[in-house]
Amino acid sequence: MFTITRRQFIKLAGSGAALSLVGMPWTVQANSPKIVIIGGGIGGVTTARELIQLHPQLDITLLEPHPVYHTCFMSNEVLSGERPLESIQFGYEFLQKRGIRWLPVPALAIDPVTKKVKIPEGELSYDRLVVSPGIQFRWDQIEGYGKAVSEHLPHAWSAPSQVALLRQQLEAMPNGGTVIITVPPHPYRCPPAPYERASQIAYYLKQYKPRSKVLILDAKDGFPKQQLFMQGWEELYGFKTEHSLIEWLPSQEGKVLRVDAQKMAVYAGELEEEYKGSVINVIPPQMAGQIAIDNDLSDDTGWCPVNKKTFESSRHPDVYVIGDACDASQMPKSAYSAHSQAKVCALAIVASLKGEEISTPAYLNTCYSVLGKEYAISLSTVYRLVGDSIAPVEGSGGLTPEQASAEDKKREYLYAHSWFLNFTQGIFGGEL
Amino acid sequence: MTVPSILLTLIFTCIHCLFPPVWAGQTADTQMLVNGCLGCHGPRGISLGPAIPTISGMDEELFVKTMENYQKDKWYSTVMGRLAKGYTRADFQAMANYFSQFPFTRYPQATDPEKVLAGRLLHREHCEECHKNDGFSSQKQTGRLAGQWLLYLQYTLLDYQQGRREAPEKMRDRFKMLLEKQGPGSLEQLSHFYASQLDPPSEPDPSARPDLVIDSQNPASSQLPVPFPFSQRNVPPPSNGDFQPTTHPLLQPSLHPFEPPVIPSQQNALPLPNGDSQP
Ligand SMILES: Cc1cc2nc3c(=O)[nH]c(=O)nc-3n(C[C@H](O)[C@H](O)[C@H](O)COP(=O)(O)OP(=O)(O)OC[C@H]3O[C@@H](n4cnc5c(N)ncnc54)[C@H](O)[C@@H]3O)c2cc1C
């Protein structure tokens, strides 16, 4: 139940985004089970919508301090200038109409024993808590790089201002300059996205600054859809030729050790080679969002262990962790995965409230990478629970075939954009 | 636990009574299964992305058959074949049952009036015998064509033409005849005709679930998704006579299909999102 004082709540409601408890248009009752959701990203919003659809009487509060969500997916197209930043923005007004209370405040702490979440104005008690805070960066992993430096050398991996900054830097850089992208070791948010980013930046450079190039410094020795990416880079960006717009260096030469923002230099590889860039995009190593780490939901991997059937935390009962923050076995940290996990989690929560067993979970991930105009590739996988881990259904799923024609890749490009419309409609649209 | 368990039991019993059926006759299993489909095909299978077909209101048998065709690679696809291999026939049946419950939903689309006119004549001569009611009917073997997305129709017809989508014998013959007599441009004309269709020519079968048409003037009244201004949809289509699937006008950079959300007006403006995920 709300333990915020009435005065505080009215103040909150007065800020325009919160709702007053009185006058809630739906049928929340005093004894309605209380669900608190931390994070208004893909995982959090999907769970909220799914829960209210499954069970309109639930009393759902979603905590998200930012008034506007920006999708990370398709943000690489913002970098190349293919779409405006506004095209990946979504607001939260629809939640109210759906009967979901949105409080524009952060969760500060979780007490899993008394089942309360602390917010700036007080605390909320819950029957079930869903935590979907996404990622945070491990700032201590690369010497010379930290939060302050990221204002100059953007990561552009979670915040819109960062995407805007990187775009500005690309626009400002000279023809002939080098764009360095550093890629962290697994696991990190959206494994193929650094390579999609390299492709989109190359697409921009090809049109406007053709004497420039993208240099990928990688902590790994391989990456998802590698053959397909490289094939695409050959077809589109002269990869493997003298004038290639993209160069990829695996760990031996590419693992980043140090960054010098003054000198605009990155030091990487076994020989600590110096690489200079006009633009440096450091994608730092990652772990689960702060709130999960601070509240004992993660283990020493930095990610949150969960029961794969329900996404209930292995560490605290009645707390569920989904999306990038959780360890979901073989499912990659993607928006489609977060969406799929959110739906399984919602069904699990409703089942647990009813005292029933959850039905056989089904999970799915499809991930498009857009390499250039009318050129996209994809990876899709159907997952099932095997033992206590999530594994691909044998004989299903897979990648765009290597022999796919230009026509096939054009279709995948069109599907990628249609997917974006339908996916965001399902999550942020005005319809259930 | 701070709440006495007896209270919890009480609450739960209460919830139990309050529980409304989500979708009549849908088990949680079905809900699980279809969740995978909805991410790409849109809520309830009502697509807004012009390359991805709307699958709401689809005939159940046709749905299962379609999935099996993808599963067995009888029909060319990009992702559908890969995904279909992850499910069983029983899964397809459950999915089919789910999607058949929602009305097929049509959005006004930009089409070329000349092609529509020509397409109508072609349809009546070559296709109406099976795709009854100007393509509004859907049965076991015939999908609903009227009001489906133009881009999807264009590609699907191209696949039939190129022999990578197996057709029933009768359709194969008709298709051959159509192409011989009228040339590949006829497929473009048919696509425009079907895409332009919003209202059926005759009274629909009263036993069938009525389809939905989204009113472009007043889309809000329909309670259905309205993602971007409809005014932007009325883009004159490219008017080349050949059957060349064109990039959908919605995807042209100058006409981005996006509507910036209304940003909540706040007196005590919150800091703009510029930090990391952590507040
Ligand atoms: C460049 C790039 C491209 C990508 N492309 C794709 C793609 O094509 N397809 C795909 O499927 N995925 C893609 N992804 C991945 C996708 O964006 C993420 O996997 C997805 O957003 C994860 O969802 P989430 O709910 O875990 O986290 P998020 O969507 O990040 O949401 C977390 C939310 O929690 C909020 N939050 C954090 N802490 C608190 C707190 N204490 N209190 C309240 N709120 C809090 C944050 O403000 C944030 O809004 C891409 C990612 C990147 C970086």
Give a structural overview.
The complex is a heterodimer of chains A (432) and B (279). Chain A is an alpha/beta fold and 432 residues long. Chain A has two domains: 6-136 and 287-360, FAD/NAD(P)-binding domain, CATH 3.50.50; 139-284, FAD/NAD(P)-binding domain, CATH 3.50.50. Chain A is 29% helix and 25% strand. Chain A contains eleven helices and 25 strands. Chain A has helices spanning 6-14, 42-54, 75-79, 93-97, 160-172, 193-208, 226-237, 251-254, 290-294, 335-353, 406-428, and strands at 34-38, 59-63, 68-70, 89-91, 101-103, 109-111, 116-119, 122-125, 128-131, 135-137, 178-183, 213-218, 246-249, 256-260, 265-268, 273-276, 279-282, 286-288, 304-305, 319-321, 326-327, 362-372, 375-386, 389-392, 398-399. A five-stranded parallel β-sheet of chain A has the order 5-2-1-9-20, with helices on one face. In chain A, α2 (42-54) packs parallel to α10 (335-353) and α6 (193-208) runs parallel beside α7 (226-237). The radius of gyration of chain A is 22 Å and the shape is globular. The model of chain A is unreliable at 1-26 (pLDDT under 50). Chain B has a two-stranded parallel sheet. Chain B has 279 residues and is mainly alpha-helical. The longest helix of chain B has 15 residues, at 113-127. In chain B, 43% of the residues are buried. Chain B has ten helices and two strands. In chain B, α3 (60-71) crosses α5 and α8 (150-161) packs antiparallel against α10 (185-196). The interface between A and B is large, with 98 and 71 residues.
